[in-house]
């Protein structure tokens, strides 16, 4: 090697080291802030978070391996620089009530450039709470807290962590933009009430990818004002599947645009992909650009459902139609088995029929003894493409099929 070249490299080495150092985040290890095993770490975590928010360079809050008790934490920005919350250990919620009964277990609000990582576990210890939960049948029930509540967060990457046994919804992600969940595991038993996996609402550009969601309620539920939601390579089950809605009950609701569910697998879920809107409900809004593609249904009770007469427990009436307009729906390459005969349901609003619906390459078989696989359709004229098993909308009520 030419001496001059070596000299040049030597000259630049300190500079290189500086560049590397500049990229290393400042570390905020909770044990440096008084966190001890077997004691509530909420104070240590909150203090570390506050200091990280003030950091002029990017920061990393570290929760080391081990089991840590966390009674509750409400963490908020603004943050001066990107923050990473690296959870290497297991965070355990209290078994009983949280200190602030009106709050969630862990809330993170108003943060820009957040990363949650580390391979650790958020353990909601919900088993006790589920027994008390009767919200599915009692309107005045005591609402149990959410496990992870993310609101007004932007440019966030949440990956390689697990949330288990939440007392209620596992994750609520509201009013947030550019958020990606990857290798995000959710686990709770199939009979745990109201334990939705990820609930989205008033969000844009959310990606949920390469993840496994097993729970007692919706795998992913998508509320109003959601746009550009991408769900890809996600396995759901047990649970209730991926749901848009229920929509229509509140006049303030805004449009849902751009939902992409691709390359997903549903294992023994109650529904596969579903859109539900309330009849006799006041809100006029649009639901459009829905893409459900390359999906495997394995023993799914109701694989494909658009239901604009959604009325569980007969808590509403069917006198008036839904005013939610559904259009541009693409359902393509859906294969597998249905646990009940009615594999495809498309019951659209009689005053706002579904428009521009394309259904291509469906192969759903029903192996039970309740007769052949069926479809139920109303107020929709889908464009049919490719091989379709069962024949789609062969039996129509309401508007005629094309
Ligand atoms: C961060 O930057 C501000 C403004 O440049 C400066 O006043 C402050 O002292 C810095 N804080 C730290 C902790 O370096
Ligand atoms: C997030 O983005 C929205 C929309 O651009 C913006 O209004 C909001 O202030 C941002 N929030 C944060 C915490 O950066
Ligand atoms: C959507 O979010 C991802 C991060 O998950 C980001 O890389 C991408 O630029 C965002 N797209 C838009 C259009 O903002
Ligand atoms: C799909 O997700 C699963 C589960 O997280 C993962 O093991 C697999 O590598 C992912 N596939 C691709 C192509 O990334
Ligand atoms: C599609 O999903 C299957 C099953 O989850 C996974 O094995 C495969 O890697 C995924 N492919 C892509 C491109 O994500
Ligand atoms: C199929 O799904 C039903 C209803 O969810 C469930 O009871 C049954 O155990 C499942 N069968 C298999 C083989 O997984
Ligand atoms: C159509 O309806 C008849 C009678 O209700 C039923 O026997 C048949 O299986 C249905 N066919 C399809 C494809 O839904
Ligand atoms: C979200 C949620 O339900 N959080 C629960 C997460 O688990 C802790 C532990 O019970 C519960 O207290 C929280 O309520």
UniProtKB/TrEMBL annotation:
Residues making up the signal peptide according to the UniProt record: 1-22
Keyword Secreted among record annotations: yes
Organism, scientific name: Penstemon smallii
A matching Pfam family: Glyco_hydro_28
Transmembrane segments: none
Lineage: Eukaryota, Viridiplantae, Streptophyta, Embryophyta, Tracheophyta
Record localization: Secreted, Cell wall
Keyword rRNA-binding: no
Domain of life the protein comes from: Eukaryota
Keywords: Cell wall, Cell wall biogenesis/degradation, Glycosidase, Hydrolase, Secreted, Signal
Gene3D superfamilies for the chain: Single-stranded right-handed beta-helix, Pectin lyase-like
Designated name of the protein: Polygalacturonase
InterPro entries per the UniProt record, alphabetical: Glyco_hydro_28, PbH1, Pectin_lyas_fold, Pectin_lyase_fold/virulence
PANTHER family: PTHR31375
One BP term from GO: cell wall organization
Principal localisation: secreted
Example of a GO MF term: hydrolase activity, hydrolyzing O-glycosyl compounds
Residues forming the catalytic site: 240
Family: Belongs to the glycosyl hydrolase 28 family.
């Amino acid at each position: 090697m030419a001496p001059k070249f070596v000299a040049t490299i030597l000259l630049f080495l300190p500079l290189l080291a500086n560049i590397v150092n500049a990229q290393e985040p400042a570390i905020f290890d909770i044990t440096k802030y008084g966190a001890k095993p077997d004691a509530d770490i909420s104070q240590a975590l909150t203090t570390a978070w506050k200091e990280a928010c003030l950091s002029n360079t990017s920061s990393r809050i570290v929760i080391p391996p081990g089991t840590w008790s966390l009674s509750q934490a409400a963490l908020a920005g603004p943050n001066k620089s990107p923050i990473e919350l690296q959870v290497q250990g297991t965070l355990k919620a209290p078994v009983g009530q949280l200190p602030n009964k009106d709050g969630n277990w862990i809330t993170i609000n108003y943060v820009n450039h957040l990363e949650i990582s580390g391979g650790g576990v958020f353990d909601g210890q919900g088993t006790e709470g589920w027994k008390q939960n009767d919200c599915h049948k009692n309107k005045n029930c005591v609402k149990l807290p959410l496990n992870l509540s993310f609101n007004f967060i932007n440019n966030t990457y949440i990956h390689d962590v697990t949330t288990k046994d939440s007392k209620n919804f596992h994750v609520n992600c509201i009013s947030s933009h550019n958020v990606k969940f990857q290798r995000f595991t959710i686990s709770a038993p199939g009979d745990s009430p109201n334990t939705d996996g990820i609930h989205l609402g008033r969000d844009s550009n959310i990606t949920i990818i390469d993840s496994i969601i097993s729970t007692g309620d919706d795998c992913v539920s998508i509320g109003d004002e959601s746009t550009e939601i991408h769900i890809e390579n996600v396995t759901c089950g047990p649970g209730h599947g991926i749901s848009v809605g229920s929509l229509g009950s509140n006049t303030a609701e805004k449009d849902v645009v751009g939902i992409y569910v691709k390359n997903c697998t549903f294992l023994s879920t109650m529904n596969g992909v579903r859109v539900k809107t309330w009849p006799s409900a006041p809100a006029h809004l649009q639901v459009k650009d829905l893409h459900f593609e390359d999906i495997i249904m394995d023993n799914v009770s109701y694989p494909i459902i658009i239901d604009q007469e959604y009325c569980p427990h007969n808590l509403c009436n069917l006198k008036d139609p839904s005013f939610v307009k559904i259009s541009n729906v693409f359902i393509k390459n859906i294969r597998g088995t249905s646990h009940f005969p009615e594999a495809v349901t498309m019951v659209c609003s009689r005053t706002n029929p579904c428009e521009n619906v394309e259904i291509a390459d469906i192969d759903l078989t029903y192996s039970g003894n309740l007769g052949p696989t069926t479809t139920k359709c109303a107020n929709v004229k889908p464009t049919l493409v490719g091989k379709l098993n069962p024949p789609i909308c062969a039996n129509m009520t309401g508007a005629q099929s094309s």
